[in-house]
Amino acid sequence: MKENQNKKLLKKLLDRLQEDSWQLELLVSGFTIFGLFYALGPVRDAFQKALNEGDLLKDVYQTVFAAILILIFNLIVHVILRSLWIGALGLRYLSGEVEIEKLNYSERFTNYLNKKVGSFDDYIEKLEKLCSVIFAISFLLIFYVIAAVLVQYALNFVGSAG
Fold this sequence. Notes:
mainly alpha; 87% helix; elongated
């Protein structure tokens, strides 16, 4: 009985954290973009130096540089879409839900609007999901790039050892 109650409390806490995660997403995105712009120059310079000297770390620097560019692009898109989402929430707060039926349009036009425009709440929900997916995929892509490079190094190592 007590275990079941603890699971319900945990589920409630996780649901609440999921709903409020957009604030953390924006903070992480903002600070990450800021830090990545500062890291871009030194990584590029280190890559150029390793390339000129024939250093074996050139692939590592190139991977890090590519990862930084991927993160910067994705996180900027995330911040723009999250800002649009915040604006849509503010607009919804001020205007409320548009009730197309109360506009007294013809049935044909009302059906067209319902079909094409849809609910503003649905639009906000779609934006929310899109923003969360972009945020998650941004970091997932970095791990894909790192994994691909590690696999390539492992294959090269096995190929040269055999």
